Structures are given as C-alpha cells and as structure tokens.
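re the bet — no i am not wrong, look at it urself. input seq straight from the record:
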Amino acid sequence: MKSSKRTPFKFVIEHLETLNPITKPMFGCTAVYVENKIVIILRSKNENEEDNGVWLATTPEHHLSLKQEFPKMRSISMFGPKPSGWQILPASASDFESSVVKACELILLGDKRIGKIPKQKQIRPKRGNPGSTLESGSKTRSISRKRVLPSEKASRDDREVLAEIKRKLEGLADLATARVSKTFFKTGPGQYGEGDKFRGIRVPVLRKLSGDYGHISLPAIVRLLGSSFHEDRLLSLMLLVRLYATGDETLKSRIYKTYLENTRFINNWDLVDATAEQIVGAHLLARSRRPLYRLANSKNLWERRIAIISTFIFIKHRELGETLTIAKMLLTDKEDLIHKAVGWMLREVGKRDEKVMKTFLGSHYRHMPRVMLRYAIERLSQAERQRYLNGDLRPNQPGRLSPGS
C-alpha cells in the first residue's frame, strides 16, 4: 500500500487495508485505487472548502440507492449546478465519519455502485511500427487493449457474492440483540472489545449461513474479515475454517499464513475460540510448534489467546506437553481473558490425564491467577478444590510434587 504523508482522512486507508489500496496524487487530492478501479478521492483543501471530504466514484444510476444509505451525500459543487456523477460525503456533515466507514464497508464487500475503471489514454501507433497493429484481412486492430485475466474475472464474481452476503447480513440484523452483544462482549471505553460494532445476529444463524457459501474464495473471505461488524468477521472465520478443512496442502498453508497476517481482525475471544484450534493448531499438529511461542510472547492479547487455544487439538491427540509449556509462559499474564483460556486448557488436560494436570498445578497453584486456578480445578471434588484455593496442599496429598521432582 502506498500512502502519502499528506494524505487526508487516513482512517479511510486503514479501513481499506485488507484490499491493499494504492493512493495517487490527483489535482491536489488523493485518489484511492483498489485493483484496477478508482473508488474514492480524499480532499482537504483551502479553496472550495464545501467540497472537502470523501468523493465516491459512482454514476447517476446509483445515486438514488446510495442516497438511501448516505442521506448527507450530494453532488460536488465545484463541478457546476448540474448533478455530478461523482458524489461527495462532505467533511462538514455531522455523520461524516460514520458515513465514510459505511462506504468503506461497501467497498470491502465489492459493492458495484462504488468504483470506476479509469479510461485508458489512446496511444496512436506510429507509422511503420510493425508491432503496433495486427492485420486481419482489410481491417486493422489495435493491440493496446488490456487482456482480462481469469483471476480478475474471479474477483468480480467474488464481489457479487460479497454484496449478496452483505444484503443477507443486513436483513438478519436485530437491534435488540445487537445491544445485548455490545454489553456481553465488553465494547465500552477501555474494555477489551472497545468500539466493536454488532448487527445482532446469533451464532447458529451465522453458522447456517456459512454453509451456503462453501464455494467462496480465500480473497473474498479476507475482504469480509476486514469488516467493522463483529458478525461479519465471525462469518468470514467460519468460512475460513470450512475452506481449510477441505483444502489441499497448498491452500491450507495459504490459509494458515493469511490467518496469522490478519490477527488484528480476530479481535475478540469468540473469534479466536472458533478458529485457532481448527486452523493454527491443525496446521502445526505435524509441524514445529515454535510459532506458538512467538504468539504467546506477543503484546497482542488475541495472539496470546490464539497460542493457548491452538493447543486444544494437541490435547485431543493426547499431546499435553505443549499446552503445559505455553500455560507456564502465560502464568503471569495480566489479562483476565488469558487466565480463563489457560485455565480452560488445563482443565481439558485433566480430562485426558488428571495426574499430569495435578502435577502442573502442584508446582504453580500458589502463584497462578485465581480465575485460572478456578477454571482448571472445576471438575475436581469440592474438597480438592478447597485445598487448592486455600493453598494447603500437603506433600502426601494429590497434586503435590515430591522433593526433587
């Protein structure tokens, strides 16, 4: 992604990051391109200030439907009194930022109403240049036209599918459920889900929807993952898990790499828990586990959670050592969501081999966070739980390591 230091409204570029947008200077403004289309222009200048804002690359036949989504959208004044093809989301509007974010969502989902393929400059062939024309009987054809590649055709198909998915998600939205979700997933100031947006769609509905799009491509899934709506990201991750399960080794490697490159969008506990085991854990089951140690040492809360939850698949294969190693690395973590995840995985270890879990707890129960300990010992008897919580395990009691062990 190219970006000028003078680019206005840089949050727009950040929202489109998964599309690898390219920015170019244009008439003192910044034009933003996605693939072969110009999608928006960012303008912030001292003259004609009423036309500062985000210009949408659209055409008159789409104005009415876009106006329903963006009530403050209008024609660009400096182009004259007639309606302009391009439309503006004015920076002076009270809903400017929210409207621009919504426009970015449409672009991420490949909405056909936004984006134009710039006209190519016609280059006249020089006389006598044998490479400039092709003879076909008495007709002469220019060969300067760009050939459309199969991958470009596929990406257009993807955009149609994404637009369809967006319409379905919007139709399934429920404001009451969204309000509950915002509270449940801690979206308030300073909380772990701060600023996350919800449509209000329940998980079983999303899971059913994911089954309808098993044919969707990896690039399309990544675009959906860039959405600012939580349910969109969860749906994209469900689709990613499905694609990984049915892919060949080459595709699985691409999905694994893509997953780890986009952890900034896997930014809540449910998104991690629904996917880390099935993608990261599954991929490393027969490979080196070193990537998990890097994740466990990450400053990113969600990457650390990915590290421990990914080991669930090892536990199911009765490979318990990796879970214990990463659990030890995370014993002093400050985040409650890590405490719960580690405690959960230790409990799963105990289901397979209670002695192994108790041996680990015997060394660390006095120092581990209380929530982590409670989660780990949940399946033990009440008397055993109390001994751990009261810190009075004796050498002859289960879970206590003997000297020298």
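see?? The beta strands are 22-26, 29-34, 37-43, 53-56, 74-75, 87-90, 133-136, 139-142. told u. also The CA atoms of residues 295 and 303 lie 5 Å apart. so pay up
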